[in-house]
Amino acid sequence: MSTDSAADELLHDILKQVSRSFYLTLNVLPLGVRDQMGLSYLFARAADTIADTDLIDRAQRLKYLNLFRAQFTTAAIDWAAVREIQTALIPHQRDSAEGILLQRLEDCLKLYEGYSAEDRERIQWLMSVLPNGMEMDLTRFPGESSGQLAALATLDELDQYTYYVAGCVGEFWTRMVCAHRPLMAAWDVAKMSAIGVRFGKGLQLTNIVKDIARDLHHGRCYVPTSLLDEAGLKPADLLEEENLPRFRPILNRLIGLAMEHLDEGWVYTMSIPVSEIRQRLACMWPILLAGETLKRVAAAPDLLSPAVNIKAPRSVVYRVMAITTLTGSNGFVATSYWDSLRKQIA
């Protein structure tokens, strides 16, 4: 990767404009992988923005998503295609950060061009897989409201979706850190990549259960109909808040599946050498905050209300960061913290 300080400054400027919270988290990563992870985040966020721009029709969004994905399959960037994406989508952005990201898409791709061939190849792989989840959203869920509600059919379909949108990131992360951090050279990349996939799936399942009501009212039910059938429920039944008691056994099953994945994520984290404390912290924080979120999801009496926004409060975020910064190098103490938290998730 280019070590040009101007390029680094440009990337960090874009990240701060698009997501200051992600930028602050990114800074905990060690040098050598920080910029690649940051730029990859921006590309993933851009793809997601294209897919979510609901002021243009789905066929157009699919067209521009595929046009963007194509920039990672050829030797040279098609700058005319990039400008076509910008012209079509920038006027329709409700979120200023999304608009800024699309405006600066050319800057991001120029930074990408300056990376090593090996890093470009890793990013190309990520961008060949991750947009499949966004394409799945656009094709599997044809509507934008609860009146056009559609659902995934099986647990296998849900598993595939969580791989596309997050599991593949765990695989990409593993490949990148093993390539750049000498102390990671002893890792079995294939084995740890598979565990990294579980890590990502756990985080995505956490997002799915916490946002279930909001997604339902946007026409998307990620809870498979095969599970709902077992409880005598239809996707539309989840629009009624009084059906939460009937839904709760299914919810608990999904929470349990998320926890199984996150347990594997913890194994992954504790396998990181102690001297790579920055990497450890970058993995500990999302796992522990996912646990805090699942704890709140499991206890929420109004989970099916679209007005509810379930997340760990800022005070908890600060507490997690403070405790792990002090104890993250001690595997026994850190694991005791995780075990204590997971026991609170009923």
TrEMBL record:
One GO BP annotation of this record: farnesyl diphosphate metabolic process
UniProtKB keywords: Transferase
A molecular function (GO) term: squalene synthase [NAD(P)H] activity
Species for this entry: Nitrosovibrio tenuis
Keyword Translocase appears in the UniProt entry: no
Zinc keyword on record: no
Cross-referenced SUPFAM superfamilies: Terpenoid synthases
Protein name: Farnesyl-diphosphate farnesyltransferase
Bilayer-crossing regions: none
Pfam families hit by this protein: SQS_PSY
